[in-house]
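quick one
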Amino acid sequence: MERFRVVGGSSLRGSIRVSGAKNSALKLMAAALLAEGRTTLYDVPSITDVEYMTELLRRLGAEVERDGTTVTIDVPAKIGHAAPYELVRRLRASICVLGPLLTRCGAADVALPGGDAIGSRGLDMHMSGLVKLGAEVGVEHGFVVARAPDGLTGANIWLDFPSVGATENILMAAVLAKGTTVIDNAAREPEIVDICHMLIDMGARIEGMGTSTLHVEGVEQMRPTEHVTVPDRIVTGTWSIAAAMTRGDVTITNGKAEHLEIVLDTLTAAGAEVHTEPDGLRVAMSERPTSVDVVTLPYPGFPTDLQPMIIALNAIADGTAMITENVYEARFMFVNELARLGAEIRVDGHHAIVRGRPTLSGAPVVTTDIRAGAGLVLAGLVAEGETLVSAVHHIDRGYPDLVGQLRRLGAAVVREPDPDRFDD
Ligand code: UD1
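structure w/ uridine-diphosphate-N-acetylglucosamine:
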């Protein structure tokens, strides 16, 4: 087990490049299963979640090679259809192999990923969508067991909530179904648009990408492709908030401002200067931030994945802010850790009231998920003295070389063994 030792007080200054999005790359890797042959993905981030997905694809029979940020996936004509618990439990996103396996093999057995530290994360919409496409789907002995021996048939599917994962699973299943599928109230995240682009290059017929209604005309067969992963908007947002909080000046290359409009508007309201540049954006701030209210919503709303970081910003802002979490019921759990740094936060249901303080004070804290971890590191950057962030394997799941990048921007951060923790 390792931890980060963060010494607060430095302003982040300089330039960093953001790599491809975790939440896209993992799905693009699963989408490769739809076609026999060699698919190459570029700008895949070097994070542990990609290692787990690599392992899962190998277990299903694909040959996967990684060379830096390039991943080559060679898919045989016949692939396995079982995703075992010991792999799925490490990576909830592995549920996204359900749709591709079912549509390619007529069968899929994918272990239930279980809940995690940010809420229950059901699968009901994934399963009912596949049932609409004609599959028999149930839960047996801890596995989602789906069968469609005669293939899937297009259908009209309405999602109760624009779930990212359900949209992706149904979309990937529908590309090889017979006839037309319409997914209504579909998620519109840039990662969904990214996977649509890749599927279209593979031969899929999809209309409406980036809107709430996706039309998919099933095709007989998909072909392998080459694809560059969309830049990570959550990592871009993390650096933007970090620049503002530390009263720094950071240029984020490869970041897409158009994927972060509400976040950047929020930072501007807090007092930051935001400039869009030809290959990215620049965020600078010289004063203490002003408190900003935030409501998380599906895209294009404020992303729930940036909620811990904006709470950290509000913890040192001038004023009081109300943060409303609409996507994950248990995402405020990390505020107890933030309170260890002196943050004043009161949680009531899905609202958190954050009373800004002039300063925080460093303390040992432990993270329970990727984004809470990033929020705690950001808080540590502005706290007086040392903050020790434990269980950083969570952060490694989503941020490539966070410590190296922070150091390049002038932060006093080291990674070190954690003598106090042996497991999670
Ligand atoms: C993805 C992202 C995650 C992000 C989230 C919302 C990946 C790997 N993860 O997660 O970082 O925070 O989108 O932007 O891409 N739900 C149900 N039943 C379902 C499906 C979802 O109740 O069948 C609920 C979930 O419990 C959650 C909410 O809907 O409360 C949103 O989930 P969803 O959009 O599906 O998120 P993920 O795809 O799991």
